[in-house]
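Issue: ligand-bound run for 2-acetamido-2-deoxy-beta-D-glucopyranose - logging full I/O for the record.

Environment: standard queue, default settings, no custom constraints.

Inputs:
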Amino acid sequence: MRCLVYLTYCVAVSCALAVVQPLPNVQQAAPPAFCHDQECPKYSVTQSFTGYELRHYEESVWVATNLTTMEFTQNDSSEMFFKLFHYISGNNSKHVKIPMTTPVILKVEHGPGPTCESFFYDHFMVPFEFQDDPPVPTDPSVYITVLPPFDVYVKSFGGRPSFDEKMAMIESLVTEIADPSRFEERFYYFAGYDGPYTINHRHNEVWLVARH
Ligand SMILES: *[C@@H]1O[C@H](CO)[C@@H](O)[C@H](O)[C@H]1NC(C)=O
Ligand SMILES: *[C@@H]1O[C@H](CO)[C@@H](O)[C@H](O)[C@H]1NC(C)=O
Ligand SMILES: *[C@@H]1O[C@H](CO)[C@@H](O)[C@H](O)[C@H]1NC(C)=O
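Outputs:
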């Protein structure tokens, strides 16, 4: 099933064609409302389009874990989440509790060649006060990683999307950008801003990294 989804994605990428219109820069004044009272990575909106926007993110430090699989299950998803959750709960070199941040971002990267194997990377942002010297994870499959400054096309949507619904949003974003030379085709991100107990105003995003 997943293979079919990826193939559809590839077809959508190679078929897309059109021109996007730049708009003037819009700076981010305060953290957006959808971060609620949690820290989230700093960005500015550099262009707005119908249905999506282009953001510039500053460098940021994350705790991450990864998995290579042909089929990404709910079990895989919660296992990765809890590895990171244990890190912030005190399973780290300083035995400190680290506040939760938002969003949780999942990077999905297609494997090379004809197999369906893909690489999944789950990330929590390290709070700003810890970014200069983050506690070291005690779990060897959990690690600290720096995301360099980057530009990303972002499409936002609400609800509680399934993996397939998120894939469909990626495909919509691909169609809307309409020019595959503008973004990295090998990988994309899902960003989820809410825990399972948030009922209203849930916020989700799909990201495609802009190419220069
Ligand atoms: C979830 O994954 C773990 C580790 O791979 C495995 O031990 C466990 O049996 C899995 N659970 C289910 C319900 O598949
Ligand atoms: C904490 O890390 C240790 C060492 O990796 C591991 O054995 C233990 O299960 C972890 N505990 C939690 C709550 O993640
Ligand atoms: C994936 O995780 C392992 C630790 O389990 C790490 O050594 C490796 O560098 C990670 N891969 C990438 C591409 O970050």
